[in-house]
Design a protein that fits this description.
Blueprint lengths: L10 H17 L3 H4 L1 H8 L3 H29 L1 H20 L7 H30 L2 H29 L6 H4 L1 H15 L3 E3 L6 H24 L4 H22 L14 H14 L2 H14 L5 H29 L2 H21 L9 H24 L6 H41 L4 H13 L13 H32 L39 E3 L1
Antiparallel strand pairs: 1-2
Helix pairs in contact: 1-5, 1-6, 1-7, 1-9, 4-5, 4-6, 4-10, 4-17, 5-6, 5-9, 6-17, 7-14, 7-16, 10-11, 10-17, 12-16, 12-17, 12-19, 13-14, 13-17, 13-19, 14-15, 14-16, 15-16, 15-19, 16-17, 17-18, 17-19
Length: 538
């Protein structure tokens, strides 16, 4: 039986509290990028330092999601949400108070990483509360609102960031404080009650998975600075992947593992995570590349570039509501396949329009791409978490979020390389066509492509051919995104089965990894003789 909100509190109040709790984590995925020029200028950060002011947060999120999910399932979801909100808010305050001088770079990078720790704790716990609060047949609709609003805030980040930085860049961090205060008040009013199962923390597994993800994400993120030809890039990626393989083997032999990796033998969970991983190669990267295109090729300001992304957000939020209802009525396959296909079409149409340098002609394609992503994301994420037992929703969420953030880092690195290479090639040809000797044209194009500015403003100072060349590079990126989403649709079509997911029973006393009646391996959190009975997270 699914546990509802404690004290008879309305479920919608619980949902609102959890949306406010996770809102900060989604906004911070993109809001800082808008303020990078101001942060770098005022604090006198190096290029590497300012890059890490952005990357430290994303890398900490990816590396620690599994820990946050496991902690929520063993300590209590509400406790971990509150702790995560407090940690995130305090880290935000300290980021905004970064002092000028020699300590500035280390200060902001460290507390951005602490923000990531807070986000990694609160998100799996918040989602676990929503899943346990709503019964299975209402879960799709509830999580459509959760993912629709929270996910859409990723697009709001650049708009809000552009407005706040006109006052001070520090405000992009301080804006989290009132959001955190509202979240804590709503949590206190809602008093959500969930079940958890006390267990030992697998710190060996935590060290392996955090190191593996951290190293490989470091390699992906630094590839644009170190370049793919640098041995350090590949050393980080390969070492990280080796540690993840070791982590998998160790977890299979651990009595109380950080992640019950046998859950991947559940076909639907595996396929949903494959679809989410493929899709996230383009979801978060889209905001970065679209923002660059809007500012460099279209000459938009930072805040105007945020409005460009708002069209994606509109399609995303509206379609996510339909996706949740389709999941509740007929299962995940139809909305996931349709969403991936619609998103692929949207990116394909958008790719054909960006070289016109006319924002008006692109709006419906952006909405279509956003609608496809929204239609897919809620059912895929919800259906994946539904495959876990009610005592392991946090852990399952930690897995799916780890996959999503890992894929987003890979997508940013690979698509960034594609963008720079295409931009450089076009620039070299354009310069040569204007009489610049080929060798000199190649050298100038290489320098411009590696250091192009997206500070926005009037395009009068940017030659038209440079704007057009960057638009062609963006067209290549969006074309690749269309192909990636088409591949996700194929995986979903052949991998998912029709039908509505049934509530997973929790028979007492089953040993870890024992088979379910369906023949699948036991999901994470399956009770065994060494664990205490479920306790309410009051």
């Amino acid at each position: 039986m699914t546990v509802t909100a404690g004290g008879g509190r309305p479920r919608r109040l619980v949902l609102a509290a959890m949306i406010f709790a996770v809102a900060m984590t989604f906004i911070d995925q993109t809001i800082v990028s808008i303020a990078v020029p101001q942060i770098q200028s005022e604090l006198k950060l190096s290029n590497t330092g300012v890059q890490w002011a952005v990357n430290a947060y994303l890398m900490a999120l990816a590396a620690l999601f599994a820990y946050g999910g496991r902690l929520a399932d063993t300590v209590g979801h509400r406790r971990v949400v509150v702790l995560g909100v407090v940690v995130f808010a305090l880290a935000s305050l300290l980021c905004g108070l970064t002092p000028k001088g020699a300590a500035a770079q280390a200060w902001i990078v460290v507390f951005r990483a602490v923000q990531g720790l807070g986000g990694a704790m609160l998100f799996p716990a918040a989602l676990g509360i929503v899943v346990q609060t709503f019964p299975l047949r209402e879960r799709g609709k509830a999580l459509a609102m959760f993912f629709g609003v929270a996910g859409g805030l990723t697009a709001v980040g650049p708009i809000l960031g552009g407005w706040l930085t006109s006052w001070t860049w520090r405000a992009i961090f301080w804006v989290n404080l009132p959001v955190a205060a509202v979240a804590l008040v709503l949590i206190a009013l809602a008093k959500p009650v969930t079940e958890h199962r006390p267990a030992r923390m697998d710190y060996r597994g935590l060290a392996l998975v955090a190191s593996g993800i951290g190293l490989s994400v470091l390699g992906f993120q630094q590839s644009q600075i170190w370049h793919w030809s640098n041995p350090g890039t590949w050393l980080c990626i390969v070492a990280g992947l080796v540690l993840l393989v070791v982590f998998h083997r160790v977890e299979l032999r651990t009595a109380e593992p950080l992640i019950q990796v046998r859950i991947f033998s559940v076909r639907a969970f595996l396929v949903e995570n494959m679809v989410l991983g493929i899709s996230m190669l383009v979801f978060i990267p889209f905001f970065f590349f679209a923002s660059e295109y809007a500012q460099l090729s279209l000459g938009k300001s930072a805040s105007e570039a945020g409005l460009y992304l708002l069209y994606f957000f509109i399609g995303f939020v509206v379609a996510s509501q339909f996706g949740g209802r389709m999941l509740d009525r007929g299962g995940a396959k139809r909305p996931v396949v349709a969403g991936c296909a619609v998103c692929a079409v949207g990116f394909y149409l958008l790719a054909g329009e960006v070289t016109d340098l006319d924002f008006g002609s692109q709006q419906w394609s952006i909405v279509l791409a956003g609608a496809g992503m929204g239609l897919m994301l809620t059912p895929a994420s919800t259906d994946a978490v539904n495959r876990a037992s009610r005592l392991s929703y946090g852990e399952a969420t930690g897995i799916t979020q780890t996959v999503r953030n890992y894929a987003a880092s890979l997508g940013l690195a690979v698509l960034g390389t594609v963008s720079v290479a295409r931009f450089q090639s076009r620039l070299a040809d354009s310069l040569a066509a204007r009489g610049v000797p080929r060798g000199q044209a190649d050298a100038q194009a290489r320098s411009l492509a590696q250091s192009h500015s997206t500070s926005g403003g009037s395009t009068s100072s940017i030659p038209h051919f440079v704007r057009l060349d960057f638009a062609y590079a963006t067209r290549t990126v969006f074309s690749v995104m269309a192909g990636v989403m088409a591949a996700a649709a194929v995986v979903a079509w052949f991998g998912l089965r029709r039908g509505v997911q049934q509530e997973i029973a929790e028979p007492p006393g089953r040993e870890p990894g024992a088979a379910h009646p369906t023949g699948a391996s036991a999901p994470p959190g399956t009770p065994d003789g060494d664990r205490q009975g479920p306790e309410p997270d009051a």
